[in-house]
């Protein structure tokens, strides 16, 4: 589960490490650079509920493998991009395949396992996705310095193909999956999810979470590439090592979930994330790095708690529920890339920080008033 999460997110944010280079190579604006990140995120948001419905009818493993195979194609085509616009097109196509991995994997875990195993496997899946987010940025940043970002994307495409082969061999076939090809039934399930408090709260919270993460880790690159830091792509890639804290912290979050429940855990994690965002305003580079580490740790705990909240409380149409969650989650990320770009262009990093804090306050309110305490259920 951890490695599936890694392969799913290897490509999603990789471009963040080379944004300053793209602005120079393509003579692009901050908003255009942000939307290259947002293009993939937008496609994931659009496709998540539909691929969830299709998976409920077709199956799990075949979807995960097929999505990884498709993902390798636009990844390779990015290397041929003649403009920032075409790069956005290929990034959008990347995003179309990602829900076939993420949404279906969450449904697979919910179907094949029960009780404590669900929470634990979900945390390992999130840890793998965190590792993939780091590896994508880290590898592409250093590959650019070695062979250029275009050749670097060919390497990334080859890695995705290897991931598809690995999942084909290692992932056990579903044992508990029951196909539901009835489209009318799927629409009825969709309608019930849209008024389900658990699903709606998780979607809103997820939107705030990814807004913060995309807004922060996209435009901190432009901030650190500018004076007085003037970091290279390799140095920016190294900054993303703070993501590795999430690989360690996320599995440990299961202890917090079992002891305090989803609602309390999320509230504490959001407050921690807000403190991290504020720390990025500290002038020395080490202060910024600590702030990013604290901020991202809070986000990862929030994400793990939220998807476990869905897995524990939603019993029918799990894949569709996961799809709706990711639709809200990545819609928030798209807004983070767009509004973050506008804000950074007008007020640089300091104004961007206030935008992120505003969204995190919304997340805190949603967790405080929307989440039903599920301590006993989670345990």
Name the features.
mainly alpha, 15 helices, globular
Question: Can you tell me about this structure?
Answer:
This protein has 379 residues and is mostly helical. The protein is 83% helix and 0% strand. It is built from 15 helices and no strands. The chain has helices at 2-9, 19-25, 30-58, 61-78, 84-97, 99-112, 116-147, 149-170, 183-194, 197-225, 233-239, 244-279, 285-313, 318-370, 375-378. Helix 2 (19-25) crosses helix 3. It is globular and about 55 Å long. The protein starts with a helix and ends with a helix. Mean pLDDT is 85; it is low at 374-379.
Number of E-type strands: 0
How does the helix and strand content classify structurally? mainly alpha
What's the overall average pLDDT, rounded?
A: 85
What sequence of helices (H) and strands (E) makes up the elements?
Answer: HHHHHHHHHHHHHHH
Task: Identify low-pLDDT runs.
Answer: 374-379
What best-fitting shape do the alpha-carbon axes yield?
A: globular
Q: What profile does the largest beta sheet have?
A: none
Gyration radius, rounded: 19 Å
**Termini distance?**
21 Å
Strand content: under 5%
Helical amount: over 70%
- SS field, number of helical segments: 15
Layout of strands and helices, then pairs:
Layout: H1 2-9, H2 19-25, H3 30-58, H4 61-78, H5 84-97, H6 99-112, H7 116-147, H8 149-170, H9 183-194, H10 197-225, H11 233-239, H12 244-279, H13 285-313, H14 318-370, H15 375-378
Give a concise summary.
83% of the residues lie in helices and 0% in strands.
């Amino acid at each position: 589960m951890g490695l599936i999460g890694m392969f799913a997110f290897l490509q999603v944010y990789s471009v963040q490490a080379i944004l300053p280079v793209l602005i120079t190579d393509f003579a692009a604006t901050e908003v255009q650079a942000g939307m290259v990140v947002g293009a993939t995120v937008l496609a994931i948001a659009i496709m998540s509920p539909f691929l969830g419905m299709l998976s409920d009818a077709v199956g799990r493993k075949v979807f995960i493998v097929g999505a990884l195979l498709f993902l390798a194609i636009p990844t390779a085509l990015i290397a041929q991009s003649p403009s920032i616009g075409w790069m956005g097109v290929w990034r959008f196509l990347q995003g179309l395949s990602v829900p076939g991995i993420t949404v279906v994997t969450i449904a697979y875990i919910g179907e094949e396992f029960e009780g404590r195993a669900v929470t634990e496997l979900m945390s390992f899946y999130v840890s793998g996705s965190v590792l993939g987010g780091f590896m994508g940025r880290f590898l592409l940043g250093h590959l650019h310095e070695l062979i250029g970002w275009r050749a670097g994307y060919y390497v990334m495409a080859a890695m995705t193909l290897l991931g598809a082969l690995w999942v084909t061999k290692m992932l056990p076939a579903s044992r508990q999956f029951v196909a539901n090809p009835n489209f009318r039934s799927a629409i009825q399930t969709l309608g019930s999810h849209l008024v389900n408090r658990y699903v709606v709260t998780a979607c809103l919270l997820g939107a705030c979470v990814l807004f913060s993460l995309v807004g922060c880790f996209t435009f901190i690159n432009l901030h650190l590439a500018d004076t007085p830091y003037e970091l290279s792509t390799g140095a920016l890639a190294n900054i993303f090592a703070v993501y590795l804290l999430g690989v360690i912290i996320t599995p440990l979050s299961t202890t917090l979930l079992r002891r305090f429940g989803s609602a309390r855990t999320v509230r504490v994690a959001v407050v921690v994330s807000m403190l991290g965002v504020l720390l990025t305003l500290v002038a020395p580079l080490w202060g910024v790095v600590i702030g990013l580490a604290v901020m991202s740790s809070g986000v990862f705990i929030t994400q793990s708690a939220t998807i476990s909240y869905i897995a524990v409380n939603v019993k029918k149409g799990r894949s569709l529920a996961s799809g709706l969650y990711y639709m809200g989650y990545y819609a928030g990320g798209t807004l983070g890339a767009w509004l973050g770009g506008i804000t950074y262009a007008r007020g640089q990093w300091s104004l961007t920080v206030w935008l992120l804090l505003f969204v995190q306050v919304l997340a805190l309110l949603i967790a405080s008033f929307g989440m039903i305490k599920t301590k006993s259920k989670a345990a």
